[in-house]
Amino acid sequence: MTAGNAKPYRSRNKNEIARRAAADIPEGWYVNLGIGLPTLVADHIPPDREVVLHSENGILGMGPVPTAEEVDPWLINAGKENVTLVEGASLFHHADSFAMIRGGHLDLCVLGAYEVAQNGDLANWTTSFNDRVPAVGGAMDLSVGARNVWVMTSHTTKDGQPKLVERCNYPLTASSAVTRIYTDLAVLDVSPTGFLVIDMVEGLTREMLQGLTAAPLRYA
Amino acid sequence: MIDKQVKDIAEALSGIANGASVLVGGFGAVGQPNALLDALGDSGLTDLTVIANNAGFEPDIGLGRLIGKGCVRKMICSFPRGSSTFDAAYKAGRIELEVVPQGTLAERIRAGGAGVPAFYTPAAVGTQLAEGRETRVIDGREYLLEYALTADIALVEAWRADRWGNLTYRGSGRNFNPIMAMAGRLTIVQAQHIVPLGAIRPDDVVTQGLFVNRVVHVPGGDPPVSRVATAEGGAK
Which of A27, A56, A81, A115 is catalytic? Predict the structure, then answer.
C-alpha cells in the first residue's frame, strides 16, 4: 500500500450512525438521548413509529426543534436548547425525572463515550483522574438506570486510538452498563463473552475492524 | 390573614446570615431566581454554601454574579461548566467544590424535604466519586449511601403564586424548584405573576403554600432563546 491510498470502505457519518441506531428503537419505547451525538437520533426515528423522548430536566414527549414562530423560551432540553412538546407530553421536576431513570422506567438511553470495555464498563464523563473541575451531570444515573444503554461513538479517537477496549483507562461512569454500541464502522453487542459484532460497513474486513479495536471481537 | 407576599426583594432576603446554606433552583437559563441572586450578590454576604445544578452561566447575572462577588465558599452541584466566575474562583482556591451526580443531587434534596435522612442509590457505584464511602449490597446489587440535603435558605422561581404561597411553574422552569422549596428552612420565591387566592385551581398547584415562606413579585420576562430551526432544516 502506498500513502494516500483510499480506504476500501466508507465510514458512517454522524447522521448515518444516528439513522442506524434509530432503526433499532422499537415502537413504544421511552428513550433518553444524551447531549451531543445521541441527540441526532431524534431526527431519524421513522415518523410512523411512536417513540417517546425523555429529557432529564423534566420533559416526557419532546418534539422537534421549534421554528422562530413556535419557540417557547421556557422550554429547553438537558442540552439547554429550545425544544417543542408533542401531544401527550408532560412536565415534571428533577426528582421525578430521575425516578423515571433510576427506577428502570426508561427503555433506553443513548450516550456518548470516551471508552467502552468488553464487559460494558463505560467511561464518558472525564478523561482525567485529576480533573481540575470535574463535572458529571446525569451520566452516572442514566447509565445505571435505563433498561438498555446504547453508546454512539466514533470507533477510534481522532488519533486512531481504539475506544473499544478490554478495560477502561479513563475514570468509570458506570460498571457493566453498556448493552450495545453504534460506531462509524460497526454495530456491536456487549455480550457475556465480550464484544459481538452485529454488522459492519461495506468493504471493511474483520481483520481491519479487529485492528481498530483493543479487545477481541466475535461475530453474530 | 395569611399573606406571604413581601413588598420588595430586600424584604424577601432579609435575615440571611454569613455562612448560610442556599438551595438555588433553575436549570439552564430557565427557572433561575436571578433577581434574588443578583440582590444577594450585592448584599456583601460571605461564606455561603450554594447547592444548585450548575455554577452559574453569565458572569454578571444570577449565580455567576453571586460567585463573582465572592459570596460563595462552597458549591455542591452536578455540572460546574460554562461559568467564568466559578472557574476563576476555583482556580484561585477561593471556592470548594462537591460534585454530585445530577439524579443523586435531586434525590438528596427530595429526601431532605421529605424527612428521609439518607438512602442508597446505584448511581456512582464503582466510580471515583464512591471511593472510601459506605456501600451496601441489597438483593445482590451494590448501592452507595447518600445523605439528604436541606439548607437554611431555598431560592425559587415560580410562574404563578398566590398569597398562601401556592405555586405553579412554566415549561422546563419546574426543574429543581419544587423539591428545593420543600428542602429549604426559609423558602423565598420570586414569582412572574401574583394571582388572587383561588385563581390557581387545586388540581394545578405544584408546590403547596406550606413549603413557602416569602413571595416577591418579579415580572422578569422570558429567558433568552437558545436555538430555533432554520428554514433549510437543522437549527441555529
Answer: A56
